[in-house]
Amino acid sequence: MAEVLEEYVGRLAPSPTGALHLGNVRTFMIAWLRARSLGGRILLRMEDLDHPRDKPGAADGAIDDLRWLGFDWDGSCVQSERRSHYRAALEKLGGLVYPCVCSRRDVEAAQSAPHDGDQLRYPGTCRGRFASWDEALACKSAANAGQGSLSAQIPCWRFRVEPGTVVEFDDVFAGRFSQDVFASLGDFPLARDRDGAGYTLACTVDDVLSGVTEVVRGDDLLAATPAQILVARALGAKPPRYCHVPLVVGRDGRRLAKRHGDTRISALRAAGATPEEILGALAFSCGWAERGERVSLAGLVPRFDLSSIPRSPYVIDLM
After folding, report:
1. Which DSSP letter does residue 172 get?
2. pTM score, whole prediction
3. What is the pLDDT of residues 64-97, one digit of tens each?
4. What span, in angstroms and rounded, lies between the C-alpha atoms of 183 and 180?
5. For residue 56, how far is the Cα from the chain centroid?
């Protein structure tokens, strides 16, 4: 019998926490071209669960910018409309999850060794402490009465990680990656929401339910991937493949921000830039176009070559 080849399904996952900028578009361009060059499908998912940071109009603005640049997709969803799926996943995970009332300061104080970046190891302080989310919520609210921040008032769900839990996978771009999840993260957070509507759980559930076969995204999320793989496995699902590509950064080596100049697509549009100019510049950074060449997104499909993308971050500075 002839081998049945798996249909490629990728996704674009903008977030309405700010305007679409050149860094977002470069990664989305790679993801879109990866899918189209393989004859696959690409889905759009609006990741709008970070409510305190969501900006009014940002979701519509991102979609408008993407369409202006020439992106299309074969289906779409909005995470805030999918809470029932996350609730069902929490129920399926059962005893693998528990509510936690520890603040970031509590977790930082519990560190036994210095840490880098945003990832902290959680020692399991709240394991077995509460019988329910409501009990944890009452404890958290009483302890932090009068404090206005969401993190001060709401518990989070954590995923139990046992000693010796090591996740290894072959990243399509970054290569072999291994992480001792117990030693580096401990019981990691899934969501700060009763229904499980938070980044780690929601993204994992949506990738699985949407049939995503490969996730193309920035390599700042590489270290967060083992946690998502563990969650997918605990739900009885096959995790997608992952392809983490270098970010666009400023001259200081940090992710794009206002200090690097206005890299928003909306600002570039207002200044008279064309989609072909923007895509040509980003394609040049990937080795698919000459400097100054103007090219459409569709015109880049036959040029796409994952292996030609430089391994180091793309440095840009408009100041």
Report:
1. T
2. 0.92
3. 999 999 999 999 999 999 999 999 999 999 999 9
4. 5
5. 20
According to CATH, the superfamily of the domain at 94-196 is Glutamyl-tRNA Synthetase; Domain 3 (3.90.800.10)
For the chain, state the CA radius of gyration.
21
Tokens of 13: 């996952």
Are the CB atoms for 44 and 206 separated by under 8 Å? no
Place of tokens 């305190």: 52
124 close to 186: Cβ distance less than 8 angstroms: yes
Element (H or E) spanning 36, and its range? helix 22-37
List pLDDT tens digits, range 172-186. 999 999 999 999 999
256: three-class secondary structure by DSSP: coil
Domain ranges across the chain? 9-81+246-315, 94-196
For residue 105, the model assigns a pLDDT of 87
Other beta carbons less than 10 A from residue 211's beta carbon: 14
